[in-house]
Amino acid sequence: MPNPDPSRRSEKSRRAVLTAAFELVQEVPYAQLTIEGIAGRAGVGKQTIYRWWPSKAAILFDAFLLLSRSDDGATPELPDTGDLRRDLAAVLHATVAELTDPRTDAPMRALAVEIAQDPALARTYHERLDGPLRDAKKRRLRSAQDAGHLARDVDLDVAVDLIWGPLLNRWLQHGGPLTDDYADATLDAALSGLRPR
Amino acid sequence: MPNPDPSRRSEKSRRAVLTAAFELVQEVPYAQLTIEGIAGRAGVGKQTIYRWWPSKAAILFDAFLLLSRSDDGATPELPDTGDLRRDLAAVLHATVAELTDPRTDAPMRALAVEIAQDPALARTYHERLDGPLRDAKKRRLRSAQDAGHLARDVDLDVAVDLIWGPLLNRWLQHGGPLTDDYADATLDAALSGLRPR
């Protein structure tokens, strides 16, 4: 008897649905993404999907959650070479690359649009998906504080928002070109401030 | 004969549609806002609406455009008391008040969600609605440069993004409480920078 274990079969279907949703959101405008479409691509019945997820937003969220888990269960870490500016620039450039690649821009934008309209999903997102990443950013900034490269009295959540907020806002609102130069300019301004030096 | 002028009657219908859309978006989730609903509230036929606007996003945009025009046709200006930090804090606190008031949060969020999904609408938005406001912000910052309160070598677009980006991103993504204290903290960090002083 092939595949005798129902829980293993379930897990296979679950992964097929998440993979299908993540692929489809790169191919069709998110507003046109349907449960039918996901079910068809995944090769499962619509009822199977409805049994597990209340909405396409919930599927998309779980797809991100699946992707974000590294295989060895390691927590995310930012590079720490001792050069804060260089480490943050490397991370921001990687983010620029993701946000300008249609394969990652489309699903991330779809999730961001859902989060903007759904405070409950936003809470889950900030707890389970963005939370571990924000903690990693704050650990890197705390290490910079210990090394004397970051002001001691800076609130680390404010620092994270100042470093990442302008880039994310420009991306989500199509406010201008998303380039390494722009990331560098906002990073330098965030680190050094706007007042005369 | 009452109301003999067709163009005046058109203008009255146009304003009724824009007002209806702006009111309805405060009452129902944006995803449930329909052209039918707007037509019913405005007391015009659906066909009248479709003749003038291709989508509910286009109606919402025009409603904002109508609201943004001051009656005397004046261009927007930021306060300029000579105290940059105080002037910017006053503007940011007014923004916090708008973004936390359901009557303004809901339509602004609906527009932001459309802009996130529609690069063409985003271009029009940044040119016609946000553009004049951004110019006003940059005029205030230029005046601060002239007064020696802002670094000469700072790109003013980067400065605007650093001052407003974190707040707007936290708002749109439900990233945390939107308070005057948060606005002050990000403003102070933007002006002074994150490096040790």
UniProtKB/TrEMBL annotation, chains A, B:
Residues 11-71 form the HTH tetR-type domain. The keyword DNA-binding applies. Residues 34-53 bind DNA. It comes from the Bacteria. Keywords: DNA-binding, Transcription, Transcription regulation. InterPro entries: Homeodomain-like_sf, HTH-type_TetR-like_transc_reg, HTH_TetR, Tet_transcr_reg_TetR-rel_C_sf, TetR_C. One of its GO terms (molecular function) is DNA-binding transcription factor activity. Pfam families: TetR_C_11 (PF16859), TetR_N (PF00440). This is Transcriptional regulator, TetR family. It comes from Promicromonospora thailandica.
